[in-house]
Amino acid sequence: MNIFHRNRYQGYDYVVILIGLTGNGKSKLINAFNCFFSGKYPGEIPLITNYSHGIESHTKIVQEFGYYFEGKRYLFIDTPGFADTKEKDESIRCTILNKLAKLDKITAILHIENYNDKRGKVEFDRARKLILSLLVDDVRSNIIGIFSYHSEPKNRFFENINKTDDLTRFKTYTSVSARKVIGIDNYFKFDKFINCNQNYSEDWNEFCKTKLRKIIRNIQKLKSVSQTAYKRIESIKEYISGLALKVDSLAWELSELKKKMRLVKFYPNQVPELNIKANLITKSRVVKFENSHDAVNFICFKITGGKCQINHGNCYINIGGWDRLRQFFGNYFTNCPKCGHERSSHLKKNFYYKEEFYQERKKTPDALLNELENLKRSKEKDLENKKANVISFLNELKMIIDIPFSALVDEIMASRNRADLGFLVELKNTLNK
């Protein structure tokens, strides 16, 4: 297993990007991989990148590390941490995006998240949204979540492996859906050599087997995605178009609301809910209920060309000894007998929806008009906020990536019906300023 440092971006089999908040363990994971690929114990070889214990990042530039392993070439790209106290986030984003623009493909994104971090993450959330929005859709689906500082009571590096609730917790923490989530505890020291006693050696070997190899195997399962300039620009066009459509949809709802208000004010007989003779009106609404933790509410989310999404009934029991019993008896207990997938891919459907009927007293024209007026003010405020957020987001993109956004908007407008340009016209005028 040899290390090589690359001056060009072709010839590798797997390209892996590491992103995360400052101090979350990106560089420490890179040092772990360096020891693993070199066949050394932690501290036996020099650090290839420094790591941080706080809010100041030690990775100031995008760093590349290439390795040969089992006949394949791997390129790992370690990025500076966000929410840094010394480096401006705008500069960091620009550095990362310029590096990504030079890659011909990306295989996986290792998204490192501190399991116990309670810091505010507003800046990182903004940066993450910017970077992920510029990647091709297929790349955004190739995210492997890494929970650092994640330990069980025994405080060992390899205790918790792919627990079902980690997928849900990772989505809650990051608003990002990961294909896999692997939890690691930062137990080993890479900046100094520790005389390896038997337990330490066994721990490191176990960590390599259950963590680093697991990460590598998951990377190998992913299909590398082309990052050619055309596909990247097409992805951005699609993203801008989607943002504009959301604004236009909200504007259409507001327009329909204003039409109804005019009818109520000048032609109340044409409003169905005012033209009913009965004093009580029966209406329906969809109500959201939380599911119980019963086995019947579990569903298989295994991705096999598409999600399995089969409700299996009584196929999931995950209570202490049952989990260990399944491991002891083998696949009959660890895999679902109905679909054959491992039970760790079975998640609870948290909610269900039910239509409810209720009665409401017939409104007078004045009461209905007052209700619609309040709704109009709320929607107008939402629309202005949505427009401001989109414009602010795109202006920020203009500052860190050299793409002709105005020309992209022209192409989107040309692909639409001229009578349905809506917010795109306003967006183009703003981008030209």
Automatic annotation (TrEMBL):
GO terms for molecular function: GTP binding. SUPFAM superfamilies: P-loop containing nucleoside triphosphate hydrolases. It holds the Pfam family MMR_HSR1. Gene3D superfamilies: P-loop containing nucleotide triphosphate hydrolases. Residues 16-117 form the G domain. This is G domain-containing protein. It comes from Stentor coeruleus.
